[in-house]
Write a structure and sequence with these properties.
Length: 477
């Protein structure tokens, strides 16, 4: 029902635009990437032909073709922009003769079936085959030779591709918040993250390593030769065999760290009440996985993985990013520093720091306890002159290696909200708390029992810390 309504609305708008054209207009140009990606079956092509035949007497199909491996590599950024969550490596597995999108011979046969061979103007996406070596000039000539040399070509198109760093970030967002989700409230958050990434991390994306590219090229050799004979009989080779090493400069720009922090801020602030702490943790994990797959790819059923080399500058950026996560997410810090070491193990201090992270990962997590010490002025045992501050500081010093954060935190000007008021809130003389890690309840209670405040009428409370909401630990690491 919604689809039918959309068709009626689209048709009405399309007809209104045609009717509003000046009488001098003799040719209408219609361009859409979806003509290639979405029109695949005979039924879909029949619908396209039936629709346009209602309005136009002469229909010409202009199509530029690129070598399949290059097309697929370029299309990866478009896939990510649309919410695709898969790796470059897995995405490239789609590039096979059985896939209609990449088998140009089958794709053009479908267009020819409806519109006829003479309606197809098939060209090569190669500068050496373009009019004046310019794509716009070449396209203009196909419309009318009189347009050649009259177009304003000073406006340069922006590169819509993402750099490998941008692809890793965008993929991490998509892995946690895929493009097709029932949670409509997540869409604006994902779109904001996408804009941040595209604004700052554009550039040449990942490309296949030479041997993998040759593997793809060979798989299309037969169909491409048939394509050449049918549409380019005067051209000896339509797609030259790949000869260049496919490794791309995967340098991580300084903006990489800033953008990933900005994305995290969007998830935490804009996503408050929408994005769960577990999803934020999943994003951090997915980001580490995405970066690792770029730096250390598997073969994924191809003859050889792509060759992506990180620079010494990249190693320094990764090290700095690891330090930024050291307190908030030690596991992310470990993953980033591991990538930094792979990029350049000669960075001073990196190996020592990585060993430290490894040792910390192997240490079992100890229970944390909230220890509150206080003295009520109304207690008959309270005597401020008997309080020995040296003994109190000595008590703290006896377990200082187990303290999390500050040695002691003072509670001042406490306000109680709600109907329940703690009895001791009436007149507290000393009120402080410490968070301590201990291996057992017995150990923490033994520490608490030695508090000097107990000797002057004070009290000590010990509470084990646990998560108020399951999954919240990821947000407070």
């Amino acid at each position: 029902e919604q689809r039918d309504a959309y068709r009626r609305e689209f048709t009405a708008e399309f007809e209104a635009e045609l009717q509003g054209l000046p009488a001098s207009v003799h040719t209408v140009l219609i361009s859409s990437e979806h003509f290639h990606s979405r029109i695949r079956t005979e039924e879909e092509m029949d619908n396209v032909h039936a629709f346009f035949s209602r309005y136009f007497d002469d229909i010409k199909i202009v199509c530029y073709l690129r070598e399949q491996g290059v097309t697929c590599s370029s299309y990866y950024s478009t896939s990510l922009k649309s919410g695709g969550p898969i790796s470059f490596e897995d995405f490239m597995l789609r590039c096979a003769p059985t896939n209609y999108y990449f088998n140009y011979l089958d794709m053009l046969a479908n267009w020819e079936r409806c519109f006829g061979f003479d309606a197809l103007d098939v060209a090569l996406f190669s500068r050496e085959h373009w009019e004046r070596g310019d794509l716009l000039e070449d396209f203009a000539k196909k419309i009318s030779p009189d347009l050649v040399g009259k177009l304003d070509t000073s406006i340069q198109a922006e590169n819509e591709s993402l750099s490998p760093a941008g692809q890793a970030l965008m993929r991490a967002v998509n892995m946690v918040f895929p493009g097709r989700t029932a949670r409509a409230e997540v869409d604006p958050i994902r779109d904001k993250c996408r804009k941040l990434i595209y604004d700052k991390l554009r550039g040449p994306g990942q490309r296949l390593q030479l041997s993998s590219h040759l593997h793809v090229f060979d798989s299309f050799r037969e169909s491409n030769e048939a394509l050449r004979k049918k549409f380019f009989p005067d051209v000896e080779v339509i797609f030259p065999e790949p000869t260049e090493a496919g490794g791309v400069d995967a340098s991580l720009p300084d903006a990489f760290v800033d953008v990933q922090i900005a994305v995290l801020n969007v998830l935490r602030k804009d996503g408050k009440g929408i994005v769960t702490p577990d999803e934020i943790t999943d994003f951090i994990t997915a980001l580490g996985r995405s970066i690792n797959e770029i730096v250390n790819p598997g073969e994924a059923n191809m003859e050889e993985a792509k060759d992506v080399a990180l620079t010494r500058q990249d190693a320094r950026i990764l090290k700095r990013a690891a330090q930024g996560y050291e307190k908030r997410n030690p596991e992310m810090a470990y993953q980033l520093l591991s990538l930094s070491e792979k990029a350049d193990a000669t960075i001073p201090g990196i190996h020592h720091k990585l060993e430290q992270y490894q040792r910390e990962r192997e240490i079992p997590t100890r229970q944390q306890y909230f220890v509150r010490s206080f003295v009520d002025r109304e207690s008959p045992d309270w005597d401020p002159e008997k309080l020995n501050h040296d003994l109190l500081y000595g008590w703290y010093a006896s377990f200082q290696d187990q303290i999390v954060g500050a040695m002691v935190n003072r509670l001042d000007e406490t306000t109680s909200l709600g109907p329940v008021t703690r009895p001791e809130d009436a007149d507290i003389a000393v009120d402080g708390f410490t968070i301590i890690e201990a291996d057992s309840r017995e150990e923490i209670e033994e520490i608490a029992s030695r508090c000097p405040l107990l000797q002057v009428g004070g009290s000590v409370e010990v509470s084990a810390l646990s998560l108020l909401v399951p999954g919240m630990q990821s947000a407070v690491k």
